[in-house]
Design a protein that fits this description.
It comes from Thalassospira tepidiphila. This is Transcriptional regulator. The protein has about 100 residues and is mostly helical. About 75% of the residues lie in helices and about 0% in strands. The chain has one domain. The longest helix has about 30 residues. It is elongated and about 60 Å long.
Length: about 100
């Protein structure tokens, strides 16, 4: 509960997340690209399985960050469900899951 003198802690968190999450998502995406790129190396079955598990975990992390950003945007009234960025992100996540056999 907030008063005129105390800021709403949820709104404060959403504002902070709006400022920080885009950079966090970009870093997670870059880390995923590096990790996924390692698949080009020669791996035995055990290494490949571990690599695929790591890629799936990285995608889940990225997806969680995106969901958190959406929540922060909703609180700030900044969500447009028809925005091309939303469908592009959803499509990228779906394609990545399919390519890893997670869909």
């Amino acid at each position: 509960m907030s008063t005129d003198k105390t800021p709403d802690p949820i709104m404060a968190l959403q504002t902070r997340l709006l400022g920080e999450l885009p950079d966090d998502i970009a870093m997670a995406r870059e880390a995923y690209h590096r990790l996924a790129g390692e698949a080009a190396g020669i791996m035995d079955a055990k290494e490949f399985s571990a690599h695929q598990t790591a890629c799936k975990a990285a995608l889940r992390h990225l997806e969680s960050l995106i969901k958190l950003l959406r929540w922060a945007c909703e609180g700030a009234g900044k969500v447009d469900e028809d925005a091309p960025e939303k469908s592009n992100v959803d499509q990228l996540i779906s394609e990545a899951k399919r390519s890893l056999g997670g869909a």
